[in-house]
Write a structure and sequence with these properties.
The chain is mainly β. It contains four helices and 13 strands. Strands 3-4-5-6-7-8-9 form a seven-stranded antiparallel β-sheet. Strand 3 and strand 4 form a beta hairpin. The protein is globular, with a radius of gyration of 16 Å. The chain starts with a strand and ends with a strand.
Length: about 240
């Protein structure tokens, strides 16, 4: 299970802020954020070495896309495309709204169940693939949201119940510390302790305003410091 926390405030100085922990098999190789896709030079994203896609990326124009596995769907499956291609498909579009509409128009049977968040300065969207042909689309209200392996802001998620109020009470400067928290029972941990070869492998912080800022921790965020992997002018 991964976690994405998203704060959407269109019209503010920083209309989009996002924090994410990637939870994965620790022996699954990956590369830190970079420009790895020649046909999408405007995209900066981490690269999964197994399937070649990404779990989280941002475009030069300030569109952010992040994919999460839904519950009980870890790993690849025969006949299914990699879910890591979904953020790259979304980041072909100049706006989050255009990306969300394009993803919803796809046949959801091509992938194992997924949650996809797409956002920019103007708003945020949650897309849910359940394995059926129809991909569900939710336009998120301005404010704070959390995605896990369940639905957006789902009270059935111990992680959401524990941590969403903590992010709501915290300043942006505290979000990195919150991502590193290992306290509480494992099912509610934001920074998942290694067990049976699985745990939190890396973390990201993205802020979109007049600039796009992307900081990355190349390991569990309580052990590895965040570093600035890009800071650039975003196109209007």
């Amino acid at each position: 299970m991964c976690t994405v926390v998203l704060l959407s405030r269109p019209g503010s100085e920083w209309p989009l802020r996002l924090a994410a922990n990637r939870d994965e098999r620790l022996d699954r190789g990956w590369d830190p954020p970079g420009r790895y896709w020649p046909d999408q030079p405007h995209v900066v994203a981490g690269r999964d070495r197994t399937a070649g896609g990404t779990w989280l990326g941002v475009s030069d124009g300030g569109v952010v896309a992040a994919v999460l596995n839904r519950a009980n769907s870890l790993g690849p499956a025969a006949g299914k495309a990699s879910r890591g291609e979904l953020p790259l498909l979304a980041l072909r579009h100049h706006t989050a709204g255009g990306a969300a509409a394009a993803i919803q128009a796809l046949d959801g049977r091509n992938w194992r169940p997924f949650n996809l968040l797409v956002a920019d300065r103007d708003g945020a969207f949650f897309l849910r693939g359940t394995g059926a042909a129809q991909i569900d689309l939710v336009t998120l209200a301005p404010g704070l949201h959390m995605a896990t392996a369940l639905d957006i802001d789902d009270p059935a998620s111990p992680r959401t119940v524990r941590h969403l109020p903590r992010f709501a009470a915290a300043d942006w400067s505290e979000w990195a510390r919150l991502l590193g928290d290992r306290s509480g029972p494992r099912e509610a941990q934001l920074n998942v302790s290694p067990e049976d070869g699985f745990g939190t492998s890396c973390a990201s912080l993205i802020a979109v305003g007049e600039t796009v800022q992307f900081s990355f921790a190349a390991g569990p965020p309580d052990e590895v410091a965040f570093s600035d992997c890009r800071s650039m002018e975003a196109s209007s």
